[in-house]
Amino acid sequence: MAADLETEVQAIDKNLLECSAEEIAVKWLQANDLQKEVYQHLAYYVPKIYCRGPNPAPQREDMLAQHILLGPMEWYLCGEDPAFGFPKLEQANKPSHLCGRVFKVGEPTYSCRDCAVDPTCVLCMECFLGSIHREHRYRMTTSGGGGFCDCGDTEAWKEGPYCQKHELNTSETAEEEDPLVQLPEDMVARAYNIFAITFKYAVDILTWEKENELPGLEMIEKSDTYYCMLFNDEVHTYEQVIYTLQKAVNCTQKEAIGFATTVDRDGRRSVRYGDFQYCDQAKSVIVRNTSRQTKPLKVQVMHSSIVAHQSFGLKLLTWLGSVIGYSDGLRRILCQVGLQEGPDGENSSLVDKLMLYDSKLWKGARNVYHQLFMSSLLMDLKYKKLFAIRFARNYERLQSDFMKDDHDRELSIADLSIQIFTVPSLARMLITEENLMTTIIKTFMDHLRHRDIQGRFQFERYTALQAFKFRRVQSLILDLKYVLISKPTEWSDDLRRKFLEGFDAFLELLKCMQGMDPITRQVGQHIEMEPEWEAAFTLQMKLTLVISMMQDWCALDEKVLIEAYKKCLTVLMQCHSGFTDGEQPIVLSMCGHSVETIRYCVSQEKVSIHLPVSRLLAGLHVLLSKTEVAYKFPELLPLSELSPPMLIEHPLRCLVLCAQVHAGMWRRNGFSLVNQIYYYHNVKCRREMFDKDIVMLQTGVSMMDPNHFLMIMLSRFELYQIFSTPDYGKRFSTENTNKDVVQQNNTLIEEMLYLIIMIVGERFSPGIGQVNATDEIKREIIHQLSIRPMAHSELVKALPEDENRETGMESVIEEVACFKKPGLTGRGLYELKPECAKNFNLYFYHFSRAEQSKAEEAQRKLKRQNREDTALPPPALPPFCPLFASLVNILQSDVMLCIMGTILQWAVEHNGYAWSESMLQRVLHLIGMALQEEKQHLENLSEENVVTFTFTQKISKPGEAPNNSPSILAMLETLQNAPHLEVHKDMIRWILKTFNTIKKLRESSSSSPLAETEGNIMEESSRDKDKAERKRKAEIARLRREKIMAQMSEMQRHFINENKELFQQTLEELDTSTSGAHENSPVISDAKLTALGPEQTRVAEPRQVVMCILCQEEQEVKVDSRAMVLAAFIQRSTVLSKNRNKITPDPEKYDPIFMHPDLSCGTHTGSCGHIMHAHCWQRYFDAVQAKEQRRQQRLRVHTSYDVENGEFLCPLCECLSNTVIPLLPPPRVLFNRLDFSGRPNLTQWIKTLSQQVKALHLLRNEDCASKFEEICLFSCIFCFRNPYSESIKEMLTTFGTATYKVGLKVHPNEEDPRVPIMCWGSCAYTIQTIERILADEDKPLFGHLPCRQDDCLTSLTRFAAAHWTVSSLSAVQGHFCTLLASLVPNEKNGNLPCILDIDMFHLLVSLVLSFPAIHCQDFSGVSLGTGDLHLFHLVTMAHIVQILLTSSTEENGMDQENTNSEEEVAVLTLYKFLCQCTGSALKEISSGWHLWRNLKAGIMPFLRCSALFFHYLNGVPAPSEIQVNGANQFEHLCSYLSLPNNLTCLFQENSEILNTLIESNNEVKRYLEGKRHAISYARESNKLIDLPDDYSCLINQASNFSCPKSGGDKSRAPTLCLVCGTMLCSQSYCCQTELEGEDVGACTAHTYTCGSGVGIFLRVRECQVLFLAGKTKGCFYPPPYLDDYGETDQGLRRGNPLHLCKERFKKIQKLWQQHSITEEIGHAQEANQTLVGIDWQHL
Ligand SMILES: [Zn+2]
Ligand SMILES: [Zn+2]
Ligand SMILES: [Zn+2]
Ligand SMILES: [Zn+2]
Ligand SMILES: [Zn+2]
Ligand SMILES: [Zn+2]
Ligand SMILES: [Zn+2]
Q: What is the whole-number distance in angstroms between the Cα of residue 1293 and the centre of ligand 5?
């Protein structure tokens, strides 16, 4: 059956393939009714090609569709073979100068901060690189998909609209030329025909809703087959869909994931194919399973023919898109066809139909037709306009559809608004002709229906669904923003009218916000439920920029401004027509002034923070001043209608509310209010909230008597009583009043004074003060930097958002700040220039309270450092604009003087608590401001002007009867000497000094100069006295400091002496190794030091006493005492790997005895160097384990370490560890017997050894294992007694087993014969890694290791040397025999690797460390030392052969020195001999110089490793020559290692070895014949991959990367492995694989092959480094890319150009080379617990 079906399909294919595109096209050309012909063709073939079964076969379908369906269309269109036709078209085409490249997801896009008209103007990478903006301040982002390159759009760029490529075309094409003239007429006709038919077909079928028929097509299918089609939504999660599918259609989890992935990508996927019932059944299961909590998943049973035609419909649209790419003429025809109105009139064009059906289409279909629109309609200048009109007319419908739709905005046609509205000419046209502004605002209002009785928005109790809608409706504000982005340069009457109409609509919107969310103070009970406040603030936040832009527009035209001002005022009056209603009028009077107002208490009645209408009016009022309209056309303005008390009322209430909240009066209203107040002042909102309230007060006050204003203000602050009643304060403090109330009043007074400071002092907005925009931004920056130096991004964040906040800042920052570059960590900082400190205003209105006190502290400190007095007087201010000029009079008004006087009086009396220092500080500041003001007035005095500002005179006058209070000046003089006001003395002195200066100024201007006033002299002398006093105090302080320092250092010395060991351990990182052992050992300076062999330098090992970090007890390291251990961490490592593709062998069967020279996987041991008693550690570890198990059961939380795997944190430094290494004395000494025999030479020694080995084999071969064991046992008892204490033996086993377990990834088994091999291997590998690090850093071999590494290597080597004592002797002997056989073959050990496949250093370590097992049964009397030496020589010889065989010397190209040294001759002889041995297969080399040079370079790493190894094994100190980098390192090493300088001499001693080494194995031959690869020497160190300097290269690389598993789809989280350079598709279902029975993401899976479980990645989209270790551990790490401001950009949010910082990258590389990645993760996770919760394994 199945086979039949297959042949049938094949048969169809054959039939289909016989179709000829040309013949069909010819038939069509002759047809009368072309549409009928084409439709018939489609009706017949489409179902035969598409959807032939349950799974689509895209390649087959595409191939057939091209052949049978599209082919004929192309023939028809071209009238000839399209293979010729299309290229012809393309050549004839004069392409448009627009780039129009549509962005893929993740593709980099560039915008120029200097030249882009708005931030939405972007370039593709290619255009950007060819543009002038490359050299400008640009910004890069990654595209979210959709949108296109604006290169060539003159409206998008202020400068340089063309890149080099697109500039070429501009001169030729006249803008207006009709592209159709390029095409032959008959082709135009054919194009019309075929486009009309195919476009209509596609639109009809995609918008088709009937189930069993087709639009104008016959149903050809005989049998009815159906698909069960699953659609995507944004409600259900991946997991839900996968789970449901498994149930509904009985598929595997893999298939379900496949379905879900496609549904997510394309928007729909058939999940079942068959008859109707079969499909319907699946549908109902899916619906049932997903309808419980949410609305069910959308599933539809569809006839297979419809699905087939829809698939082809989409294909057609894509085809149209590509065909019009050949010619602008064809593009124009398609546009015409698309926008042609059908028979049904309005909205009947194909384009309209598609747009209006948008929300019903699935994702894939939307994408396809949106792309077509972008490449056709939006690329044709004429039709772009027509399309824009269609779009605007349908705007309301489209937006309503979008509200109902649940797809993201990027997937909606509504999102095209960004492409249309941001084009300035289109936006202007749509405003004037289609009234777009009004439409957008009205549509917005229509969708926001929740209102209260007064018609204001109400978000209380709104549901989740409404919240969802509210989020969607916000996108309309974005549209409004786009429309307003570019401001008109010329105004037509039409534009004015339509803008004002839009302004009206906008005012309606603001009116609904004016007074929304009112609140009433809660007394007694705390509020029960926090009221909803976020929605209202979200709205405000989103509108902030729009409100500012509206004002910007108004500022551009005087007529518009005047009209807008009138409209705004009218609406405000409507809002508050009855602002007095219900509230009683009262009369306030003070100091002989009286004013009428209403009785209103913020603390008792309703108050709202939302006052957008008032604030807009305030903004417009400033514009009247700024544009001077107010002076030019006063008659046109309704200034007389303004009622200042009405204007200030609501903003004042709002500010009083803030003050009261701060005074703690609204505590019972909960956090929602605190949040609102926070946002009211926050940088995101303040520009159109708090700032404008201040402006409104300034506006009001400038129009009224300041005394009146102050009285109203006192009344609103509920402080009127206090200041209007004489002696109120006195009564207040004497009576036993509520302390809280007093405190409250104090805060309110402080707040009120602060408000007055702001009203008078804030004049840095153009229009209020005589400043420009630059001054404003400079002032913001100065005050931010007064707090502390800041990074660029911090500064940007602190500034309000507007289109050029960054460029605005950058244009002035150089003037006020210096940039300091970052170091290896941290970021670049801006520091305030010292000369700018004088502009600092302590009461800057944008400071938060915390910022204010920080700034105060910082500025005072600065002044102290400069030895200045610490007063922070108010800075000199710019003058007000005339409209606001009268504001300064507040400062000298009677009520103000009364307030100042009262507070100073309180301060003088200094009684009780009805008074505070902050109050006084503010009063002093106000006095200072007034003095500055008067001084400036006097200085700028011109002839005719009279100075009306006479503050100095007023404060000199004493109060009148009946008070008879002293004058303010007198009180200040009193306070100057008050002991309780030390802090304010400097300020008071400054005031008095300024007072005198002014007095002088006045006198000089009025009459003859007088002598210095007495006061001045007095003041001056007191100042000197003060200075002396300060100096004396400073001196005392210095002496005291010195004394303390001396005491401390004494204590420190003492402490160090007492805790010497501890100290050495903890500070080890700081200084390099001067390990105790070396220090204490006798200095052997003159003697030649030899590390091994019979000549080994004898060194008395010093007594080593260490302290346990857990119990603080000291103990000596001895063989027979309790074990001391070092915390250690063992890990598998591929850091040195030369072959990352090696397949890991089955760990159970793997024999690790020989390490391959590719070092593909080693075992690394590291340690933090902290020492514990073994038993203390065990107790500690047991406790940790018990605790963690309890905790995990209870809380199910992870920790940064995996207890079950034996992991723990070092108790002292929290370094991740998984085992401990025992500390041992040098083990060789224990087993070395007296050197009583003659020393055999190498040949003799090998002979003896071979006999021994043979004997061992013989014993084994007797096939009597037990007997053999017995003998061994016997011999052991006889000749060797394990000298170690039980405790040490136990630790030897513990660490050995851990190495085995981790190194092989197997279960622990201490009996396994591979345990000792792994121990030797880890020792060898760790030494090799350290040698590499030292070499890479160009450090000498000895003397530069940190203590922790030095201690670690010592213990590790000694441990590895002692480990054989706890393993099976026969096993170790067996290993030795095998190892030796690789160099000295014997008949027993066959199948050994060839010498090309052995890492010689590993071999050396294993041989030397297993040798004692043989030696202990050796009666030949040869010493261990002799054995070591011979083994070392043997291995060295083998390595020399290895190097010579694999040497890739190129003779030419290198300068050869003409020497013929002994070494060169010898090595050449050796090489020739090698050639003979290999049967002349070896390449001939005649230069001994090259060979010797090569050999030396190749063998160096081995010699260096060996030197380290024998140094740690035997404890012979390194000669001073190799502790520094110097000449003749090679010779010094040879001497230390008992090697002849001429290495080839070794072969003279034993030349047969050479033969045996090569002949034994024919692998060497295969290699020389080029049949296999071999590692050559010296192996280069591994580095992380090279990264490009420019980060956008990486983004581009990543955007071209598609997921390897889901057929060309773009990966969402492309992630680069920094070790091998592989790009991965991370954090995505598509690329999950199974690893050890668990699903893991691509990164985790990759770490297992590339890094043995450890990985270093760069998440390209996020610009973030990712460290992974195992499945559960990971952390993020700052990327090595910095912007010009020395900052990283994790998440790529700011988009500044990023460049590689080599030093930081080196740091990451070093972490990797040092095997510290896991440790780094551990520390990061300990520091940040949220990291533990991240699902690392799925990345
Ligand atoms: Zn481009
Ligand atoms: Zn371009
Ligand atoms: Zn530019
Ligand atoms: Zn202890
Ligand atoms: Zn530690
Ligand atoms: Zn890799
Ligand atoms: Zn993938």
A: 22
Residue 711 has φ and ψ, to the nearest 5°, of -65, -40
Distance between CA atoms of 1526 and 1342, rounded to whole angstroms? 12
Q: What is the pLDDT of residue 1473?
A: 82
Residues with CB under 5 A from ligand 7 (ion): 1603, 1605, 1625, 1628, 1630-1631
Rounded distance, CA 1460 to CA 552, Å?
A: 87
Name the H helices within 1305-1384: 1314-1336, 1347-1362, 1369-1381
Q: Which residues have a Cβ under 8 Å from the Cβ of 599 and sit 6 or more positions away? A: 583, 584, 585, 586
From 784-798, 1538-1552, 1673-1687, the region with the lowest mean pLDDT = 1538-1552
φ/ψ (deg, to 5) at 1352: -65, -45
Q: How far is the CA of 1685 from the centre of ligand 4 (A)?
A: 51
- Structure token pair of residue 1566: 């295969």
Given a contact cutoff of 8 angstroms between Cβ atoms, the answer to whether 1296 and 1371 are in contact is no
- The whole-number pLDDT of residue 1071 equals 37
% of the chain surpassing 90 pLDDT? 37
Angle CA(744)–CA(748)–CA(751) in degrees, nearest 5? Answer: 140
Q: How far is the CA of 1137 from the centre of ligand 6 (A)?
A: 11
CA distances from 189 to 37, 72, 197, 330 (A): 17, 16, 13, 11
Instruction: Choose among 198, 202, 173, 189: nearest CA to 330.
Output: 189
- Selection from 1059, 1069, 1111, 1125 nearest residue 1288 by Cα: 1125
Distance CA 687, CA 545 (A): 9
Residue 235 confidence (pLDDT) above 50: yes
E-strand ranges in 1095-1173 read: 1105-1107, 1114-1116, 1124-1133, 1162-1173
Closest CA to 1513 of 1598, 1591, 1408, 1420: 1408
Is residue 1320 helix, strand or coil?
helix
pLDDT at 1062 over 50: no
**Mean pLDDT along residues 819-832:** 88
| Sequence-ordered list of residues with C-beta below 8 angstroms from that of 826, at least 6 positions apart, any chain | none
> Mean pLDDT of all residues in the chain?
84
From the CA of 1211, how far away is ligand 5's center (Å)?
A: 6
**Centroid of ligand 4 to alpha carbon of 1063 (angstroms):** 17
1461 or 1352: which leads in pLDDT: 1352
Tell me the C-alpha distance between 1686 and 1681, whole Å.
9
Token pair in block for residue 1441? 């052969």
pLDDT of residue 890: 93
Residue 1326 CA, ligand 4 centroid: distance in Å: 28
**Beta strand pairing status for 138-144 and 105-112?**
antiparallel
**Residue pLDDT, tens place only, 1246-1262:** 888 888 888 777 776 65
Q: How far is the CA of 98 from the centre of ligand 1 (A)?
A: 8
Planar angle of CA 864, 868, 870, nearest 5 degrees: 65
Of 593-607, 639-653, 1135-1149, least confident by mean pLDDT is: 1135-1149
What are phi and psi for residue 1585, nearest 5 degrees? -65, 160
Ligand 3 is an ion; its neighbours by CB within 5 Å are 112, 114-115, 133, 136
**Phi, then psi, of 607 in degrees rounded to 5:** -145, 145
| Strand positions, DSSP E, 822-907 | 829-832
Nearest to 879 by CA among 871, 888, 868, 870: 888
This prediction has a pTM of 0.80
Whether the Cβ atoms of residue 142 and residue 1693 lie closer than 8 Å to each other: no
- Cα–Cα distance measured from residue 1320 to residue 1404, given in angstroms and rounded to the nearest whole number: 10
C-alpha–C-alpha distance, residues 76 and 193, integer Å: 10
pLDDT at 726 over 70: no
For residue 1210, the ligand closest to its alpha carbon is: 5
